[in-house]
Design goal:
Length: 297
């Protein structure tokens, strides 16, 4: 497994420094019999059932790492690096293009970068996010990522009639450091349409997104010609969450800030960062919006 982990980290183009650090951590786990046993039990459990309890799995792997001095962020990322081997086999079994597996596994790299930016270390502090890829309900298609799941709520208007068991396609925006323009989004939507159509069996193709990027209060402060503003226009906003406490616990998503700090310390090297920073200094509160749109077959 160590050789595979090294190989796939190189294939996913992890930074050399990250590969060296993570491989050293994996070596530490495998050089201890008890830690190795616990870590490999995690891998076998996944190979036996991809729909297992990922909370249990991640905790077990993190404890195996911590027993030999490996930080849980590193151990968690390494677990999913190793699990990608069986996932690749599952893609082949289900007849899913290997390019989709590769694009989906790139999320390991995006979260690795994010962990270094926010926590100043190699690993992932949001490893709880990975299971959707590994139980094959989330796929990276082009510039975006998509979940296939039940809506779990109700909503209806002149265009939509959604019930708890209505299957919808959830949209997620990975932080890839690449353009987020309308052309790349439209290409991703088209790929998702082709990929999920057989699963819907003719049912309406409804896309939803719940994100801070869709928070209605941001609409008037985000530059009109920006890709973020354009993304907001992809959706009809049907709900929102308002952070009435002003805590802004998601500052890391835009500003790479581990904990809320003096607003004047927030970086402003992009137009979006400048706009949100000014909004916050002026007393604006944060939140999230729920958006929806439909595509025809």
């Amino acid at each position: 497994m160590r050789n595979y982990a090294l190989k796939v980290m190189r294939e996913l183009e992890f930074d050399k420094e990250a590969i060296d650090a993570l491989y050293a951590d994996l070596e530490a786990i495998y050089n201890d019999e008890n830690a190795k046993k616990e870590f490999e039990e995690c891998i076998r459990a996944y190979e036996e059932n991809i729909n297992l309890d990922y909370g249990w799995l991640l905790t077990k792997a993190e404890k195996a790492g911590e027993s030999v001095g490996v930080h849980k962020y590193s151990a968690g990322l390494l677990l999913f690096v190793c699990l990608s081997k069986h996932l690749k086999e599952m893609y082949k079994k289900e007849g899913i293009d290997e390019k989709i597996w590769y694009n989906s596994m790139l999320d390991l790299k995006w979260k690795l970068w994010e962990c270094m930016a926010v926590k100043k270390m190699y690993g992932s502090f949001v490893a709880w996010w990975f299971p959707g890829f590994f139980n094959m309900t989330r796929f990276a298609l082009g510039r975006l990522q998509f979940d296939f799941a039940k809506y779990g709520n109700t909503y209806s208007d002149e265009e939509f009639d959604l019930k708890p068991d209505t299957m919808i396609i959830g949209v997620h925006i990975p932080r890839t450091m690449t353009p987020f323009d309308k052309a790349s989004r439209d290409d991703a939507y088209a790929q998702a349409k082709a990929f999920f159509a057989p699963k819907l069996n003719g049912a309406p193709m409804v896309f939803t997104c719940y994100s801070w990027l869709l928070y209605p209060a941001y609409r008037d402060i985000i530059p009109e010609k920006s890709n973020t503003r354009s993304f907001m226009d992809d959706f009809k906003i049907i709900g929102q969450y308002d952070d009435k406490e002003g805590e802004y616990n998601d500052a890391w998503r835009l500003f790479d800030m581990d904990q809320p700090k003096d607003l004047n310390e927030y970086p402003e090297n992009t137009s979006l960062r400048r706009a949100i920073k000014k909004y916050l200094i002026d007393g604006g509160r944060t939140g999230e919006g729920l958006g929806i749109f439909k595509m025809e077959y």
